[in-house]
Design brief:
The complex is a heterotrimer of chains A (about 475), B (about 500) and C (about 110). Chain A is α+β, with helices and mostly antiparallel strands. Chain A contains 15 helices and 14 strands. In chain A, a hairpin with a 4-residue loop joins strand 12 and strand 13. In chain A, about 45% of the residues are buried. Chain B has a domain of about 250 residues: Amidase signature (AS) enzymes. Chain B is built from 16 helices and 11 strands. In chain B, a hairpin with a 5-residue loop joins strand 10 and strand 11. Chain B starts with 7 loop residues before the first helix and ends in a 5-residue tail after the last helix. In chain C, strand 2 and strand 3 form a beta hairpin. Chain C is about 30% helix and about 10% strand. The chains are: A alpha+beta (about 475), B alpha/beta (about 500), C mainly alpha (about 110). The interface between B and C is large, with 72 and 54 residues.
Amino acid sequence: MEGWETVIGLEVHAELATATKLFSGARNEFGGDPNTHIDPVSLGLPGSLPVLNEKAVELAIRVGLALNCRVQPSEFARKNYFYPDMPKGFQISQYDQPINGEGWLELPDGRRIGIERAHLEEDTGKSTHVGGGGRIHEANYSLVDYNRAGVPLIEIVGMPDLRCAEDARAYVAELRAILVAIGASDGKMEEGSMRVDCNVSVRPVGVEELGTRCEVKNINSLRSLGRAIEYEARRQVDLLTSGRRIEQQTRHWNEEDGRTHKLRSKEEAFDYRYFPEPDLVPVVPSQEWIDEIRSAMPMLPRERRSRLAGAAGVQTGAAALTVERGLDDLAVDSIGRGADAARVLVHIENNLADGHGALTADSFAALVAMETGRDLTATQAKTVLADLVESGGDPAAIAATHGFEAMDTSLIEELVDDLIARHPDDWAAFVDGDEKERKKKSGFFVGQIMKSTRGQADGRVVNQILDRRAGGPARQD
Amino acid sequence: MSTGAGGMALAMAAAVRSGERSARSVVEEHLAVIAGREDEIHAFNLVAGDAALERADLLDRSIGAGDDPGPLAGVPVALKDNMCVRGVPTTCSSRILEGWRPPYDATVVEHLSAAGAVVIGKTNMDEFAMGSSTENSAFGITRNPLDATRVPGGSSGGSAAAVAAGFAPLALGSDTGGSIRQPAALCGVVGVKPTYGAVSRYGLVAFASSLDQIGPFATSVADAALLLEVIAGHDPLDSTSIPAAAPDLLGVLGRGVEGLRIGIIEELSGSGPRSLEGIAPDVQARLAEAAAALEAAGATVEQTSVPFTVYGLSAYYVIAPAEASSNLARYDGVRYGLRVEAGNAVDMNTATRTAGFGDEVKRRIMLGTYALSAGYYDAYYGKSQKVRTLIIEDFLRAYESYDLLLSPTAPTTAFPIGAKTADPMLMYLNDVCTIPSNLAGHPSMSVPFGVGDDGMPVGVQVLAPANSEPTMFRAAAVLEAAAGGGAS
Amino acid sequence: MAPDPPEVARISRDDVTHVALLARLSLSDDELDEFTGQLAAVLDHAADLDALDLDGVEPTAHPLPLRNVFRADVPVAGVDRDEVLAAAPAVEEHRFKVPPVLGESP
């Protein structure tokens, strides 16, 4: 791939977290017995008419505001094509007048990715292909469930600003975090409530003109997104370097064989015959309504990261994981109560992967203070923290019930000297080794002391004793 | 048949509500008329005799218990077969919907039920309301009760014929380009296309959504007002429903036209340099007499030009098929109605639609598909939408000077069966006077006014600005009185 | 009034074939000929619109100037599944059964 650049633009469909469908009062719920969330509108029965769900519009505007889009007057259009899971023979979507115009999404590292538009449309039903191992081309027949038909979707069309699979994954992860943060969607890719279509093209480095693109569909996880992009870019480069050309195609990602397969070429593209949906009237959100939605918006992941970074005095990248885990409120509050920021972030990274449970900012701050005040070792602190997450309480009291108290330094010195005596070779390696070797050996010695004291010794104290006995820190080469 | 002016349905409902006669006797009487002549006329796809009698008995019991079933107590109403009644076959006179029983009621059906009406049957129509003669029905033609060798007009020909034949005092039709007013004119009854959005379309099987509107047929202006009052009003299930209460019509009927300014649309009058050709001389003569009658009643009547109305037909025959091509895409053999089996879904869709739709429906689907397809949208659909704007502006200009406008309803009286079936364009020209109101979304109605040289009824069309049904009905009542009562 | 020559090419037999494909209709050769002639006649009539100056005219999609018509996000009882499935041409496991679809949806 040397000498080639990949250009990626993503189209993300996310189901909006409403109680009912976009155009009717049937329930918007994942799963359910087949064809139980149905009504005349979602079945496209003759005579049925759509009426727009106000909540869906509000959520769409929230998405627009979160993505820095221009929220604008919009209209619905009919996109005409036949497919068994499309009950009316057309999909109600937005075409030339989307509710959200251009905007941008900021990646955690601060780069901005352009958003072309974010518009409302209805979802289709679900087809299950029976026989032929469930593969569409070999199936004997298909069964259609319309529970999903009419569920509100927001389609977020990104600009072709992404250049590698890693960035594409970061974009989708950030978008998902935003959608979840603002309550617009549950963002579950595995349940299909968030779906990613990916436009990929390649061009020689330095060339301005875009290559012919292919659209890759059926991407069901962040992992397959990365794999699909890498495969597709490789495929295109291979074609071009062997003197062939790229045909504009829609391709299907197959998770099992790790390849993309041609669905259809541009020549076979559909003629959707878009025209204004006569059964719906224009949506013209008032400035007051937009302002009201804006003022009720929860904090975005980007804002959370920079707030935490400011409180902790670190880069936003270091704060990303904490925000991702939804623990930034806890972190900011604990730091605000005087806890050491670095210890707070280390605990969140290593010991709070499953959330904070019953742990409060007060008890967290108290625990970290005990640790930094040498009243608890790191190992002891971890044990107390686990109890706090489990059932809350006072860290000092919990430490006492465990019998944790700081070990006397002279006692640790005796243990260290005894250990050195029993392992002369390791000690020689520690004393004579370079920084790397000394680190390795210190790990051994500290580990042995921890073992014999059941974690009550303070690792930092052990290291200080080792350095003193060796006559100073490691030599510098 | 009715003596008109007092209102046959009004009198019937009054008698039933007061206990003077039973709903059952009313229904039985109409079923007897139907039994006597339906074989010849074929106004109905379905006569719901047992259900109607059951419903009548229920009404009689509730009246006996001291309840008032409402303003249409015991009155039989015939429904065009494109309005959904739960559990009752609704076919749109198409093979593709044969046997389909909707699992829900149209909003108008709920209104009828709440007003004490009795649905007596589903009436024949041009398939999916596409036609002007009711010769495009998959289930056979309907004949004009006044001369069975002639068409009743269309597409709501079954409803018009049912009222003209005395099968029901009231009927509902739908009007997309004249489908209530033209058959009303050809059958000598009153037919009203209300303002777009005045009557809910929920449960009306769509032909062209931005043009379709449900409206009443009756033997008198008063009965039409009664039925329109019952079915009109805001419906939250129809996004295009006017968010206001239905206007009072019965209360204003007697107010006359003194001081109203009424313009005869020169372009549609048949006379004058700007007029379209094809308006028959006898129709022109009745229009002139109608104008004179209005003038005699105190209105100012003069000819006026509404120039873009002549482009209505062209715009309509792009817009309506375009919307129809999309509205009718749902008939794919998957969820309801006809299926013709085939080896894969695409072939099944195609076989089903090919077997299920008649030629006129196919013609319009293809016309509309073409008008919307890549490369032709701007030339046809886009252009027609702009012409629609010009027509609306044109009407608004005319309504600055006039309260109402006047034109013939149809260019000729009822024509012989088969006379226009070979040439679609010739058939389409029937709608030239009625289409502009649909494009504008304005109300208009046809009132019988004398007969043509062939002795068949002529209808005069009263047009009004949006939401001006009360004024429109006042003029209609004056015309009705001048013509000597209701239907012949 | 005599229509001016149309701005776009007259609809051809091939156009009608293509349109029938889009609309999922199958036409015999005779039908193709007949429909081509009939559609051309209607479109020729529509060509009288070419004479109009439509520059700057806004298109009308809705006859009424309504805006922002919404419903509240509250579930409403739907239709009875058995009643709906009873009307379907083919059903299996409470779902609508169709012949194999061959291709993915767009």
